[in-house]
Amino acid sequence: MWKLVFGIFGIFIVIFFIWRLSSRRYTLPCPTWLAWMVELDNPFSKINRAATIIKNLDLKPGMTVLDIGCGPGRVTIPLARELGPTGHIIAMDIQAGMLEKVQAKARTENLTNISFLHAGIGENKLEHNKFDRVLLVTVLGEIPDQKIALQEIFNTLKPGGILSITEIVFDPHFQRQSTILKLTGSLGFKEKNRFGNSIAFTLNLEKLV
C-alpha cells in the first residue's frame, strides 16, 4: 500500500518539475480538461482564494479590470459581482475552452459587465492606459517571455494603476518575490503593498505616473 502511495507521489513530483522546466521555454497553461482543479481553493493557503485576492485590490466604483489567464473564471465571476454594473472586467485567456466556461457562468448569473478576449499577453492586443487593475493569479510563470508581457501590462494600465500578482508555491510555475520585483522594477513598477509570506503571496505593484 505504502509503495503505491510513494509511487504516485513520486510520479507527481516528476511531472511537477518537468512541467516547471518546460514552461520556461513554452506556453503551458493548465489545460481546459483540468479546469475543475483550478476551481478548487487550496486548503493550505488563504492568499490564493478569490475573496482574498479581491479584498486586496482596493476596488472603487466604475473601475475597469483585466484578468489575464482567467481560466474558468474562479476570480473573474466573483470580481464581476464585486464591481457591479458600474464596473467592467475583461476576461483574457489563451484557451478558447476556458473562456467558454466563463461565458457560461456569466450567463447563468446574468452578469453583463464582463467582456472576453481570446489572446495571450505579450501579443500587443491591449489598448494603452485602459485598466485600473490587472490581475495575474498564478499565471506569470506560464509566460515564456515575461519582460514583453509585463511591458504590455505596464502600457495598458492607467497611471497609478495596479498590477496584482498572486503566487503560491504549490503551483508548478511558482515565481519568487525577488524575481517578480526585479522584473517589474526595471519596467517602472513600484511595490505598493504585499500580502502573505514568501511561499504564498500577493504583490500589488503600482504603475508610476
Helical content (DSSP H or I, runs of 4+):
25-40%
What order do the helices and strands follow?
A: HHHEHEHEEHEHEE
From the spread of the alpha carbons, the general shape counts as globular
What is the residue-averaged pLDDT? 86
Please state roughly what percent of the residues sit in beta strands, choosing from under 5%, 5-15%, 15-25%, 25-35%, 35-45% or over 45%: 15-25%
End-to-end C-alpha gap: 60 Å
Quickly describe the structure.
The protein is an alpha/beta fold. The protein has helices at residues 2-22, 35-39, 50-55, 76-83, 96-108, 146-156, 177-185, and strands spanning 64-68, 88-93, 114-118, 131-137, 157-168, 189-196, 200-207.
Would you mind describing this structure in some detail?
- The protein is of the alpha/beta class and 209 residues long.
- Helices cover 35% and strands 24% of the residues.
- The radius of gyration is 17 Å and the shape is globular.
- About 6% of the residues have low confidence.
